[in-house]
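To assess whether the prediction recovers the assembly geometry, we first specified each molecular entity separately, as shown.
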Amino acid sequence: MFFLLFATLFCGAQEVVQGVVLDQNSNPIPEASIKIVELKNAGTSSDFDGRFSIKLPEGKYTLKTSFMGFKTALTSITINVTQIPFITIVLKESVEELKDVIVKGKTDARKTREKAFEVEVVQTKELKNLSIDINSMLTTIPGVNVRQRGGLGSAFDFSLNGLSGKQVKFFIDGIPLENFGSSLSLNNFPATLIDRAEVYKGVVPIYLGADALGGAVDIITNRGKNDFLDVSYDVGSFNTHRATINGQYYSKKGWVIYGSSFYNHSDNNYTIDGIELRDELGNDTGVRVDDVERFHDAYNSQMVHVKTGLVDQTFADRLLVGLTLSANENEIQHPIDPQNPFGEVVTENDIISGAIEFEKKDLLKEKLKLKIYGSITQNREKVVDTSSRKYDWFGNFIERGDQTLGEFETSKTLFEFKDNLHLINALIAYSFNESHALHLNYTKNYIRRRGEDPARSGRIAFQDPHIVNKNIFGASYDFKLLDSKWNTSLFTKGYVLNSEGIIENLFTNVEEDRFTSFENTFEELGYGFASTYKISENLQIKGSFERTFRIPEGYEVFGDGFLLKSNPELLPEKSYNANLGVLFNREIDNFKFQLDTNTFLRESENFIAIRSEGIFSRYYNTADARSAGIEGEIRTLFYDKFFFDVNATYQNIIDQNAGENSGVDFLKNQRIANIPYLFGNARIGGRFKNVIAKEDQFNISWSTYYVHEYPLTSFVEGSPEERDIIPEQLSHHLQIGYSFNNGRYNLSLLAKNITDARIYDNFEIQQPGRAFYVKLRYYISN
Amino acid sequence: MKTIQWIKNIMVIVALAVFTISCSSDDGNGPGDGGPMSVSKYVVGFEAFPVGQADPVDYILELPSLESLTKGEISVEGQGTPLRGWRFFHSLGNTVFTAGYADDDTCIAYQLNEEGELEEKANFAFQSTLDNYAALDDKTLLAVELTYGGLSDKRFHFVNAETGKLEKIVEHPIDIDMGSGTAEDPGSIPWVTGMVLRDDKLFVSYHKWLADGSFITPDVDRAYLAIFKYPEMELEKIIEDTRTSPIGVNGHSTGIEKTETGDIYSFSTSALSAGFTAATKPSGILRIKDGATEFDTDYFFNIEEATNGGKLFWMDYVGNGKAIARIIIDDTNGAGEWGAFFKKDVFKMVVIDLINKTVTDVAGVPTHGHRYTSPMFVEDGKAYISSSTATETYIYIVDPETATATKGAKVLGLGLKGIFKVSN
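The predicted structure of the complete assembly is given in tokenized form:
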């Protein structure tokens, strides 16, 4: 302003130049910065509609327009009294341009975070150049803890505010991943393939249709309308290779093809410590051996996804058909106890899935939006356990006398279950006006499971197919009050689950009792709200609540027809989930600061857990658990170059009825063991542009991950010196990246667990030590 | 008032002095001198309540005196050593053994050290599961590895009770029917339920599974028992008796037991809630007389026909011709799904007079359940037995002479798997 005043005085004749800043899809970009290269301190920014105006004296100027997430545009203009141009500036999206959540302009991530729901967003923009998968991305979020059993592809347990397993549901672009096999789980997807991940804590919007007791994670893939090709390859320790291809092409007539693919391989042959040395008979010699290589832990997975169809037609905004193929092979190194290695057990999964999606906006005078998705999938999970050998950690084995034994199972197995899945998702959004909207969502998730085992002659699990038909209905009413400062969503969800099948009772002598067909239905009604109020531009409070359920699946109620028995009295897991959080942003000169904190309560009943009964097992409703905690995150940015982020989570998870039936007081409200309760992350680093060449960027960051020690079996039982402890975990990682030619070429180095610390996510199951990864990525877009 | 306060203070001082003196005089013989101390302790295998979604955890816990079993509460709050997974507990001499089942395949030996503290002496790993145990003599614990399917030899583990080390493994089929390899005729395999060494003969009782892993019990119309030459472990013969069904119950090691006179008694359950898929003969007790290697044709105690009788789930010899047993109250409760192993309303406790063939209900023990029992702990002629109802678990101290029980310590857990006494 000062300059403008000065310029006015100096130049006298000033013309008002007007213009608009648009993205490639002609959507206005608000708050883009427009600077006049020739005049120091001259500039403006675009308004909400992307429009700007600036007073300039006559002459030739270059406008430098920039906005986070887009390539900076240089536009030449000439101003004289007779010709005052209206300038249209189109910014192209740039992957390299850091889309930090702190920037003033609202990225998708920022918009999502400011929603009334308690949601965390991880943008992958910056992570795409790194050798990481989605799981390691999500580990950096407060409230999230991912416990891994080993290296790449290993089994993991994802926990969100203390709830885990089937209680947390996963989605890709709003479509549930439930019942999809291990080759499409989160540890397969390299960050390069996706745009961002949204983590809904405890309270889940209706368009994510599932019985998510503890929250949901939605993986968002690229949604831009530009043509691009993104190819990456990375190689690292333990013979790890990962490659991705991702691209899309839009024809002018509205035909689009989109494809993405990954390939992952790792031998996971890292070394572990403390292996017991035993004599021929099995007696413990007392000797412990360190640096023993894992020899049967390789993982291999691949996926191809192709989608094609029409966009921006009169009858549809999107009408696409897609095909997904994926498969994996996972060598299993050991059971829960790592002292007993396997040498040959393998699991396999393959998935083939076809989908169709239709989307039409702007119906009924631009008020109605309709989205329909349908897919048919076949999922096969197989266990190959056909060796009777007993291996030791040094590669030796003995042939066991009993040749019917498997390594893992009590008898050899080629057990396989084949799932046929059908999925339908329909979403209707109706906007009454800018401030009031109604959403309706329906998700149908149908699964038919059948088991086979060519290696076994007797009875096998799921020999008679089981059917689970899950229908989730949702309705929400969203409204904005007080000049859009107060946003609220009220919602309700209906859960209807049918399961049916036939159980054979092998152990009866009465022929009529031998086969029992079962069918049952669960119906539950959930409800909740999410509300947020912007106290000021910088300060926002958020509160949300949901009454939610997880409906037991067919096999949990009716067993598997073999050693898993039925429990028709099993009740759904229920929970009251509540969040209360504060979001605070501040920008002082060259210092940007963001504080995000949330307190949470999960009051859950009827946890479903399996219990053994002689040779059999059965699912029961067990704990009434309460998880209460607080999580917080601070993000800072200095001079748009240096950043320091830190977050921490503390949660207290108790079983409210342990020992209750037996009049045992000291167990009541006891903390549940074997769950991390204090953990956090810190990251410090810098980003530097134009270091060696123009339009290059150099990134460096150091991150630290901490989990406080926690006991395996109990907080109060057992002598404190004798309790088994999962020790404190402190690991450090270094990332260095260099991009040039405006992000077309990217090179990065990742050093994980730099201090080669012994880290454990599970009792005595050691995680990989120091590891290095190099990644090359080529990205081109129009 | 002041006088009273004075007296109080003096009393406190005197009490403290007495306490200090008595403690220091104790120390004269104790570990304070660094010398070894002769200590006896009671050790229990304790199955704790599950918390959260976890499975129950087994602990090994030392208790200072017999009074800990008869009074108060037994808890692992702040004490005891947590072990891994579901476990068996057995003892021989002054060593307590505990072997893992599904989650752990090591057998750990615990002994009291010189300071009188319970500590791990040794451990050995086995291939899959050690399913039945017997204290053969003063030195050797025999543990046999069995399978629910397949046609392989059974593996007998000979463990030195003093060192806790595994010394020898002998593989033997015992009594395997190889079948024809077809689905109709998969063959059958033995499941050992009791082992007794008498002089140079090892008696091994068992029932059978179909070898196809279907958990079906064939050949239930008779009792059978293998006799081995010991220590050669050569099979001498297999004897049988058609008056009752196969001997013993899964998980119990007392299918056959030897009395003071050298007679061997067996029990057969014939119960469909105790893991058998068929039963045609009555539950009953057979005898092999001292010196004999055949079932005594003059002796059969039909428990189902006896007054106060029924189907036996467990029996353990206590002395003077008497045994303590659990009788299944209603065999249809959990039939076909191993109900007797996990339900809490399935048993009554009885004293069985083996010689006079009587069954007497034990007064003072409620209808209860108990999945797994190490050989019963007996001191001064009284048996200490953990039993659980749906809401609570107590040690019951059973007097076999009077068939009465008194309630001992309350167990703040799912149950005690074994009670042992050890000395250093």
